[in-house]
Amino acid sequence: MHIIENGNVAAALGVRLCRASVIAAYPITPQTPLTERLSEYVEAGDMKAEYIPVESEHSAMAVCIAAASAGARVFTATSANGLLYMHEQIQWAAGARLPIVMCLVNRAVGAPWNIWNDQQDSISQRDTGWMQVYCSDHQQIIDSVIKAYWLAEKVNIPIMVCYDGYILSHTYMPFDVPDQQQVDAFLPPFRPDYILSPENPANLNTVTLPDVRVDVHGELAHGYMEIRYLLQEDMRTALAVAADAEKKFTEIFGRGGNPYLEPYRCDDAEFVAVGIGSMTYQLRVSVDALRKEGVKVGVMGVRFYRPFPDEAIANALKGKKGVIVFEKALSYGYEGALASDLKSALYEHLAGTGDLPTVQNFIAGIGGRDIRTEDLTQYLRAATQSRVSKEPLWIGLKL
Amino acid sequence: MGTRNYKRKTSHSESGPGDGGRTGSWRVERPVFDQSLCIPCKRNKEACFICWLFCPEIVISRTIPPKVNLEYCKGCGICAEECPTKAITMVDEAKFTEEDKD
Question: Which H or E run includes A134?
Answer without folding.
Answer: strand A131-134
